[in-house]
Fold this sequence. Notes:
Elements: H1 8-14, H2 31-44, H3 47-57, H4 62-73, H5 83-97, H6 107-122, H7 135-148, H8 152-163, H9 178-194, H10 198-210, H11 218-231, H12 237-250, H13 253-260, H14 263-270
Helix pairs in contact: 1-2, 2-3, 3-4, 4-5, 5-6, 6-7, 7-8, 8-9, 9-10, 10-11, 10-12, 11-12, 11-13, 11-14
Amino acid sequence: MRISRIAAAGLLAGIAVTAPVVAGDVKFRSTADAMRQGISAFNGGFYELALPALEELEKQKPVVARYYMARIYGDNEGAYTDHSKAYAFYKSLADELQDVDADDEELAPIAAKSLTAVSMYLRGNVPDANVRTDVAAADRWLHRAALFFNDEDAQFELAKVMLRGEGPDMTLGGNDDPQSKVESGRHWLSRLSRNGHPGAQAFLADLMWRGKFVDKDPATALNLIDVAVANAPASERVWIEDIYQNIFCNAGEGVRQQATGRVADWRNRYGRQPERRSIDKSGLDDLAVDPVRTCANGELVRPIEASALVSGPPVAPLTPPISPAIRTPNLGVPASSSSPPLAPAMTVPGYAPASGP
């Protein structure tokens, strides 16, 4: 079955214990109770409740339990961060699941996310994990997650690696051509952006704004980052909104007006249903918890449809202008991604770009 997000009521109803929440002290009536509490508490960010349940769940459903424990230990914002433990769990899952059926709705997404996480650790992106860097192995794991499992987050990581002229050799002739890798990286970013991947959209918007790897196009960059913000899951919002703030604050009035005229069309074409928060943490959701962002001149950062009153020219297709002309080689990937999502969206170590490649 596919693991789904569970509402707060499920969390409260599913806690079948009254003993102190300490690993080894908690008893659950059934495996279903342990899974209900473990995943519900994880989704709500209550890791102190999730871990005992997941440790109990590991006896009967080790793959699911280890995956969620890996995510808890790999969360830099949590109180249980331990990248050595996270890597150990991800590596065991990657070893065990690398050959599962790519259409398996329960195991394939876990396999892809684990392979991608292992690749990031082996690439040296998480120094405190005490993992020896092995770029060749990192390339193999990432290649499998991106192509065999058709995982969008893996494809996004692959795009960033290839833009640096690195990553697995994907040519038929076996020639390691850095320029071909750069073009393949641009291909992946364009493809993912068209499919509504918020990370790829934000990353590509930043490249367009700076004119790096693609022609500089401020209005398209502003439109694209606007869509990315609308698409972004909670786990990715900070760095995506950082890029939006930079582009919005530095865009002139003409750029804003041009972008404003095509906001609705772009959100229609390249938008996704935004992630909905299903858990009310202690009744605090009614407070304004999002940061108030301002430009250097004190102007409030706001959605672009409110920033200008004059419509711009008709919308153009989302085809990033690239010089020289971009090639989109057939890499053996289906035209659209069908990887079933895990809830909530996973943050892979080293996932968010600080300032682009």
